[in-house]
Amino acid sequence: MSTATTMVRPQETAATPAIEVRNLRRTFRIKGGLLGKDREVVAVDDVSFSVPTGGVLGVVGESGCGKSTLARVILNLLPPTSGEVLVEGRRLSALDRRARARLIQPIFQDPFSSLNPRRRIKDIVAMPLVAQGNIPARQVNDRVAEMLTRVGLSAEQGERFPAQLSGGQRQRVAIARALVLRPRIVICDEPTSALDVSVQAQILNLLAELRRELNLTYLFISHNLAVVEHVASEVAVMYLGRIVERAEADALFRAPRHPYTRALLASVLTPEPGLGVPDVGLGDTLPDPANIPPGCRFHPRCPVAEPRCAVQVPQAVATTDGAAECLLLEGAAQP
Amino acid sequence: MSAPLLDIQGLRVEFGDTAAVRGASFTVSRGETHCVVGESGCGKSVSALAVMNLLARGARRSADRLVFAGQDLLALPERRMAELRGDRMAMIFQEPMTSLNPAYTVGSQMAEVYTRHRGGSRRAALDRAAGLLAKVGITAPGMRLGQFPHQLSGGLRQRVMIAMALMCDPELLIADEPTTALDVTVQAQILRLLAELQRDLGLAILLITHDLGIVARIAQRVSVMYAGEVVESAPTAALFADPSHPYTRGLLACVPVPGKVKREEALGSIPGVVPRIQPGFEGCAFRDRCAHAAPVCAGPVPRQRGEGAHEFLCRLPPGWTATERAA
Question: Is residue B126 domain-shared with residue B62, that is, in the same domain?
C-alpha cells in the first residue's frame, strides 16, 4: 500500500489535475440479521476520472447509485476499499487535517442539519480559520466579515443563530464556511436540492461567480439534470456504482450515447406545455446495489438490451469528448 | 358547462395572528387536473388540507364558498366529512412512508379503507386491492398485499398510496407533491400513471407542486400562489405562453432549461424574500421584490381578467407583457 505514496511525480505542474480518482472502489457490509448471510453492497465500483483545475464535473444518477459515497471518499470522510484519490497530486490521507481543510471543502444538501444550531453565524464561519490554530483573532474577524459580505449576508445576520435564517441564507452560510479558508476544490453534494427554485437560482449564480473569481474546481453532485447542465463543464453519469457515461457537458446533453443517459434526459420535465410526460421506458425493476446484475448492470431496465447484455460486461468505448460503457456501442450496430 | 366538482372561493386559513391563505379561489372540474404551484410557505399545502378539513388544531378556516359535488363543506359536521374523506375525495402526500402505517401490511391497510366506507367482506376488499395494485402497475400484487411498507421502494410505496386512494372510486384526488421524494425516472412513471388514471376514471385532480416542469406537462389549469394568494390563474398553455404576474415571470426565469439558458449566463432570480404577512397587511405582497412596483401597489390590488379565463392580481393591465416584449 505504501509503495504508491513514494512514487515520484515529475510533471506535477500546471498539468496536474485538481482531482484524480484511480480505480476507486468502496464497499459496505450489511448485516444479514440472526440467520441471514451478510451482504456486500458495492457503492463505488472501479471508478476512474480526473477533473482539471477550474473545471466543474457534474455527477448525476438516481438515489443509491453511489454518488454521495464517491463524494465522501474524495473528501477522505470514508476510506476507499481499494484504489486512490489524488487531490492536486497528493493523497489526502497523507495530509494532516488542517492542510486538508485548506485544500478541499464540502457543501452539503441540508443547511438545516449541517450548521450547529447553538452557534452564531459569524462563529460558524470562523470555525475553519480558528481550527487552523495560527491565525490572529483580528484577521479571523476580518476574513469572516469579508466572506459574509461576499455571499450576500449582512454583519447583522452574522450575529444571528441558524434557526433565525431562511433555507437560502443558511446555504449561504455553508458556502461562506466552505470558502473562508480559500480552498482550491469544493465538493458540492446536492447543494440546492432542499431549496425553492427562486432561491436555488440565487445559490447557483453565487456558486458560479465564486468559481470564476477564485478559480475553484467543483465536483457537483445532483439528481437534477437541468441544474447540472447549467453548471457543469463535464458530466459523469453513475449507475449502480459505475460511471456508465462521461462526456463534455454540451456533447452529453446534445447527443447522449448510453441508453441510461438517454432515459435520464428524457425524464427531465422542462416547463414546456403540450409535451406531456414522456415514457422513459425503464420498466419497474429498480436497481439494488446489494444485488448487481451480471453482464451489463443496466440490462434489466434497458429498453434496447440484447441477449448478450445479460452475460457480457461492457468496456468503456470512446465517444465524442468522452466515453460510455454499452455493448451496443462496441459492436458496429449503433443503438 | 356544468358546475365544477370542487368550488373554492375566498378561502382563508389563519394560524394565530398569521394568515397562511388569504382569499384563495379555484375550481376543479371532473376530468381536469388543476395544479397549484408556488414556493414553500405560499399556502398551497394548507389550502389542500383546508379542503379536506385536515388542518392542525388551532387553525381557523373560513371561505365565501367551499362546495364539493353540490355539498357545502363549510356546513358539514366533521362526522360527515370523515365519511367523504377516503371515499369520494382522497388525498396522497409527498412521503408515503409517513402516511402508511408501518405496523400493518399493505393489504390490511387497503382493505380497511374499503370496508370502513363501503362495508362488505375483507376478502372482497382484498380482491379489489389486488386489482388496483395491478392497475397502478405493480407486478405480483398478491405478494405485495402481504408485505409491510418498509419492504417497498419509494416508488412502489407511492403507487400503493395511489391505489389505496382509489379504493372507493373517488371523484376528487388531491395530490400534495406526490413525486417530490422520488427519482426523476420514477417521477415520470408516477405522473404518467396519474394522467392515465384520470383519463380512464374521469378523476378530478388537484395537484400541489413547486415544480413548474410538472405543471407544464400534466395540468390543464394552473394557479400560482404567493404569500397566501392566488396571484395568477390560467389554462396551462396560456400561462406559459404569456405569464402576466411579475412573480410568475420571475419564477419561470429561475428554472434552468437544458439547451435554453447558456452556461456562463446567470439564471434569473427574484431579489429579496417573501414578506411576513402581519394582521392588517394591505396591498400587493410582492411589491417589495417587484421591478414594476409603484406607489399604488400599497393600496388595493385589482384582479385583471385577460382573454380565455386568464386572471392575475396586479396593477398592470392585461396585455402589458406585449409592450414589455416590444421594449
Answer: no
